[in-house]
Design a protein that fits this description.
The protein has 176 residues and is of the alpha+beta class. 43% of the residues lie in helices and 13% in strands. Strands 1, 2, 3, 4 and 5 form a five-stranded antiparallel β-sheet that branches. Strand 4 and strand 5 form a beta hairpin.
Length: 176
């Protein structure tokens, strides 16, 4: 499966393919067993299977879809509830910690787990041991915010080519 699926998925797919081949041979006798090519589209890459990676993509999409909550008007006010500040030129977004926790919890993501992952990935800006930093918002308030670095397209392509920095060793003689 060319190393683009997780080990668990490869194992599960091999069991399904083996069982289907056996059932086809011993019971159905119709020669219509599943093939590897039919199974491949059902498997996810390690990156797609990573819940924190999906959370990051959802978070960046949410920030992009809600510019009025991050970019103050000329008078310093926001269109609706203020969620934080974006600094697109610096490739980072500051999200008020309580808003960050609420948004992730509402979507079923674990804020603490995501912050740990983001720290390991090097996309979380820290203030010492804190997972938050102090940030002045457009209206002058200073609040603790989660600061996430926004990856550019080159980093995204590198991630797709080598998800999680993992290069599996595959035995080319195996059919799965």
């Amino acid at each position: 499966m060319d190393g683009k699926a997780t080990d668990k998925q490869i194992l599960s797919a091999s069991l399904v393919l083996t069982a289907d081949e056996w059932v086809t041979e011993h019971y159905f006798h119709d020669g219509r067993a599943l093939t590897i090519d039919e199974m491949l589209p059902m498997l996810q890459t390690p990156t797609a299977a990573n819940i924190n990676r999906r959370c990051y993509e959802w978070l960046i999409d949410t920030v992009s879809a809600n510019p009025g909550r991050f970019e103050p008007r000329e008078d310093g006010s926001y269109a609706g509830e203020c969620w934080g500040v974006t600094e697109w030129d610096e490739k980072q977004v500051y999200i008020i910690k309580s808003i960050f926790d609420r948004l992730l919890n509402e979507e079923g993501y674990n804020p603490k787990g995501f912050l740990q992952w983001a720290g390991r990935e090097g996309i979380l800006k820290r203030d010492g041991r804190h997972s938050t930093v102090k940030k002045t918002l457009g209206d002058g308030r200073i609040l603790r915010c989660v600061c996430i670095r926004i990856r550019d397209e080159e980093e995204e392509e590198d991630e797709k080519d080598n998800p999680d920095g993992f290069t599996p060793v595959m035995d080319e003689t195996l059919p799965f």
